[in-house]
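Deliverable D5.2: sample structural annotation.
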Amino acid sequence: MEALVTPALLRWSRETAGYDVYTASAKAAVKPDALASWESGQARPSIPQLRKLAKLYKRPIAVFYLPEPPQGFTVPKDYRRPTQADTMLTSPALLFQLREAQSRRDLFLELYEQTEGDLPPMTLSADMREDPEAVAERVRSYLGTPLEAQESWKPNYDTMNRWRAAFEQAGVLVFQMQGVPWDEARGFSVHSETLPLAVVNVKDAPNGRTFTMLHELTHLALRQGGICNLREVGGYALDIEAFCNAVAGAVLVPREPLLRDELVRGYPEGHEWRDDDLRRLAREFHCSRDVVTRRLLINGRITRNFYQSKREQLANETVLGSQTRSSGPVPPAREAIAKFGHLFVHVVLSNYYQDNITGSDLTDILQLRMKHLPSLDAILDRTRVRETYA
């Protein structure tokens, strides 16, 4: 039986999923000419063939019957790639994560209004003509994270989760994406005057994800979004990426505390640092060695030659770590909270308990079974998530 679909929707679904005709036809086990004829309206797929395409494009079958493509999904501009790479294709995996994150944010807005009321607008702003150090101070104030509080946090995951909680309390959602290569995108952001969105790559190290969150927040303060891999390609980086990196580094390692640090004062200016001391300094500020090395360079404590040689070493270690990093099985409740964040899960549960959504809705949204609900409640109770943005 033929599927009476809208031809333009077949092409739109393929293109927004990141596939050309030949790749899509190979993955769906159909001939390229057949797929092209379906998209042009000269022929129609069978219902089993349509199911294959829907699975490949990660779209509900109903979307292919719409009269025209739905509006709302846009791919953020990539500010990290050099000019000669502007035509690089975004992978299907990353495009899917972009769509999912934006759809999830839209759902959150609807659910939040049901149980919590109106969200305040994001008031944090920045201008690239400003000193990154001054912007960093404003970011810390906006997030309510004085350095004294940061010093009491445990390293790695605790630090990352504390920053993430500060983002949520300030009205910025943070999701974690899966299935995207670490070297394709370490994060992206979607700007909105209300509830902007930052997404980090779960394959990155905890310190790397923390830096990415702050990098993306700077994009949002500039009233812009983008896809960021946080690498300079061929030594090239656009000014906006350098600015966002500078702000993120200054948030994590403020200038005055750095220069007052006993370890820093013990090294003569321009002297090469031992790896053990870089590790110690990084632990003090709860960040990576790459960040503290860059901050030492910016503040005139090391030479550019030393920084370049050390950065190459640290970059190789980071790539190796991303390839070998492996985590064991994570309980479903914890996985849902890690992926969506405490605030998102809290709002979904509030809507379920107030009968605004069904149990089936809840399991679809959080991607777990009802039997894991008590574990979710217990985790949220232990962390005492704020219920409003008052």
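Annotation notes: Residues 203 and 326 are 9 Å apart (CA to CA). Confidence is low (pLDDT under 50) at residues 78-88, 232-237, 385-390.
The annotation will be released with the project's public dataset once the embargo ends.
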